[in-house]
Specification:
This protein is an all-alpha fold and 101 residues long. Helices cover 43% and strands 0% of the residues. InterPro entries: Sel_put.
Amino acid sequence: MSEYGLPYRGVTPATFTILRCHPLFSVTQRPVGLRQWLIYIAKGIAQSCRLMVGVQDYPTYVRHMQLHHPQQPPMTEKEFHRYCLNARFPSEAGKLGKCPC
């Protein structure tokens, strides 16, 4: 016990070793001028609209594959969009997807 009667005061903290550090998100430079801000906002809105209607972002997929799976070659853009369509609207009999139409 410590001089104040608290049992945890004399405990030394555990030491940790960082083995690997991955950023949670990609760090991009902040836009400086008005034109750069408008381009940045327009790209964000366009990406949001594409994701809302179900069109996946191929450049983001390629960047993910390069960062996290460098040993695997990424799909071509045509294969990627076909994969996304099959995942969203499966054509196999008996397999229900998000949209049965």
